[in-house]
Amino acid sequence: MAQDLSNSAIAERLVLAPVSVEKHISNLLAKLDLPLTNDTHRRVQAVLAYLNA
């Protein structure tokens, strides 16, 4: 995510099914308590949360 890769690109690099990557990213965003809104990018917020930790 921090390298700005799509779910498909992440799946290809990790040799996983795209649906598996989608599920893991959804779980990660939920654990970080990043709400779905129209004006924010949750993937960017997740990376920033990691960098600030």
Account of the 3D structure:
- This protein is mainly alpha-helical and 53 residues long.
- The chain is 62% helix and 0% strand.
- The chain is built from 3 helices and no strands.
- It has helices at residues 7-14, 18-31, 42-52.
- Helix 1 (7-14) crosses helix 2 (18-31).
- The longest helix is centred in the middle third of the chain and has 14 residues, at 18-31.
- The chain is globular, with a radius of gyration of 11 Å.
- The mean pLDDT is 86.
List the helices and strands and how they pair.
Layout lengths: L6 H8 L3 H14 L10 H11 L1
Helix pairs in contact: 1-2
Overall geometric form: globular
Cα-based radius of gyration, to the nearest Å: 11 Å
The unreliable regions are none
Q: How is the main sheet built?
A: none
Number of strands: 0
N-to-C order of helices and strands? HHH
Q: Estimate what percentage of residues fall within beta strands.
A: under 5%
Instruction: Name the structural class.
Output: mainly alpha
**End-to-end span in angstroms?**
16 Å
Q: How helical, in percent, are the residues?
A: 55-70%
Overall pLDDT metric: 86
Number of helices: 3
